[in-house]
Amino acid sequence: MQTPWIPRRVDPTGLDDVRKAKLVVGPRQVGKSSWVWSRLAAYESSSVLWLNCEEERIRAWLSSAGGVLADLSHEFPTVTRLFLEEAQHLSDAGLLIKGLVDARQGLDVWATGSSSFHLEARTRESLAGRATRRRLLPLSVLELTEANALPVHAAAIAQAERNARRQWLFGGYPGVWLAANPARELSELLEAIVVRDASDRFQIKYVDAFRRLVQLAAGQVGGLVNLAEWSSHLGIAAGTVRDYLTLLEEAFIVKRLSPFAGGKRSELTHATRIHFYDMGLRNAALNAFSPDLDVRPDRGALAEGWVFGELTKSLGFGWSLHYWNAKGGAEMDFVLVSGGRVVGIEVKAGAPRVTRSTRSFAEAYRPELILIVASQTSAAPPSVEATPLRVVSFAEVGQVVADLTGAHGADAGIF
To answer: Is the pLDDT of residue 186 over 50?
Structure first.
């Protein structure tokens, strides 16, 4: 039976330019290859050559751009599009792709990678001006809603709310979303990340400590990263904890969110907060799949963590995502920044309310807008400290932020 296909929202700008390679990065099993094939399906099959870079013989052949081009000319004369899947396995993907692009032989190069450490970071310098990048993350609520569009607006909103609540529990990995047993699918995915990626690909020495670090981070979603404390808890050096967190970031599992520094002396500007890109993986790390979300003790963490994931899929190019803490205790869950534009976002698992933190942030920075994301969208004051205030539901926040920041789907936003 054919696997259902859920279309992705990806910015199409520049994807038809054969003078630039197309790099698609993101976590494993998020649908990168399926999306690339959805783009290449419009062309004759004889014009496309797919290469799995996990295979040793393929990697050996791809050691020289000149040799590849010569072989293509003699052995595959109809090929005009080259698809390098899992290109992070190549010893120097950037050098290869640079050589293929610089040859100017009309070859349209596409590459996917499930680790920005091995693909994105290594290719950024050598492919400057030679590639357009897209980052694909787990499914957003907007993508799920569009895939099963309902003609009645109220019904569509209700469906989006149900999708959001289900994502609090199981996240948005396509295979998990469509699985008969999503909890088991998530557990297997997490195990693949810990065992295969950690011990095999990254050659991690303390695999058990790495596993416990994932669990520790999962239990502190939205909390401050304390390397000394985590080091003591895990029994490994603080530098090792930092390295392991970097690997988890490069594999698009977690993100250390930096504080917003608006130039006020009262700000806390050093510590980072930990977030998971996908709440399903976070719940799998804790085996926390209790379906009654309204009574779960981690309800607030689920809500805040899920909004983080949705924001990473909704920000337009040129925007960055932060949090804000003042020394007096006031805080803003998320701050969107682009040049001189600032938007604050507070997340409430229950009813919306204007807090002291809301007022403090508005008074200190005069942002163009403060969004309150809440399960109940009851009326709120139209402004606070002269800053416009808007209450939105969890189902709406992705679209609202995309409209606000000019997003057109997956692009080169946050890496």
So the answer is: yes
